[in-house]
Automatic annotation (TrEMBL):
Residues 21-36 have a biased composition (Low complexity). Residues 1-36, 188-252 are annotated as: Disordered. The chain crosses the membrane at residues 81-102, 108-127. Keywords: Membrane, Transmembrane, Transmembrane helix. This is DUF805 domain-containing protein. Residues 192-224, 231-252 have a biased composition (Basic and acidic residues). It comes from the Bacteria. It comes from Slackia piriformis.
Length: 252
């Protein structure tokens, strides 16, 4: 491009002429190093935690089925106390219900029995969920340490039995559903359509068409008969109507 005016100020300075435009890459935010790398957390994921808890619950349920009533003196003693509390709660509740019949003037007769009954129920629940459960778990751990092979074998056998039972139940349900399914007709087997049941309107239309056809057939028959025969039949019909009317009058 030619220089227009050499005396212009922009051509008099010794600095670089013009300016450079910054590239678009400079405006982009810089990503951190290894920002796209996924670092797995040290613990388990929520799904893994849920699966672990489910497996632990299944294992504990199997142990409870195997060793629910430990044959130890401590367990038997706690279980006897539990039964005493439970029976006492039942007896006190019954007494609280029938005491007002014997002491109608004493308003505290019911509460004297109901409050201890509630105490016995709470005590039985606390004993079952704290003391008895701890003794049962301790016995289960002891049995697992003493007989690990037998316990594992029993648990594996029980799991296999449960799977087999589920398959058997599914097979029975499928068989029952198949037996309850209605048998198709011959036409249905070869793709024939099931005939729809006629509605009341269709039946009325069929009846009217049949009556119309009967009337037309009778008209054709009358047209083919001679006139004398038609007159005789009409007179006979009128006579029959008169006799029927006279019979009705006599009966009245």
């Amino acid at each position: 491009m030619s220089q227009r005016n050499p005396m212009n100020e922009r051509y008099q300075s010794e600095q670089p002429k013009g300016q450079t435009k910054k590239s678009a890459a400079a405006a982009k935010p810089k990503a951190k190093a290894a920002a796209s790398v996924y670092v797995r957390p040290a613990g388990h994921t929520p799904k893994e935690k849920k699966a672990i808890k489910k497996a632990q619950r299944a294992k504990q349920a199997e142990l409870d089925r195997m060793f629910y009533n430990p044959p130890t003196e401590q367990y038997k003693k706690l279980r006897r106390i539990w039964w005493v509390l439970l029976i006492s709660a039942i007896v006190l509740t019954v007494l609280g219900m029938i005491m007002p019949n014997f002491m109608p003037d004493n308003i505290w007769a019911t509460w004297i029995c109901i409050i201890p009954a509630y105490g016995c129920i709470i005590g039985a629940l606390w004993l079952d969920f704290s003391k008895i459960r701890k003794v049962r778990r301790a016995y289960q751990m002891e049995m697992m340490k003493k007989h690990p092979k037998e316990v594992k074998q029993h648990m594996a056998t029980n799991a296999a039995n449960q799977v087999a039972q589920q398959k058997e139940d599914a097979r029975k349900a499928k068989k029952e559903a198949k037996a309850a399914k209605p048998v198709k007709r011959f036409g249905h087997v070869f793709g024939g359509k099931k005939e729809a049941e006629p509605s009341a309107e269709q039946e009325a239309q069929k009846k009217a068409a049949a009556e119309k056809e009967a009337a037309e057939a009778k008209a054709k028959e009358d047209a083919s008969k001679p006139i004398a025969q038609l007159k005789a039949e009409r007179e006979a019909a009128k006579k029959a109507e008169r006799e029927a009317a006279a019979h009705e009058d006599c009966s009245k």
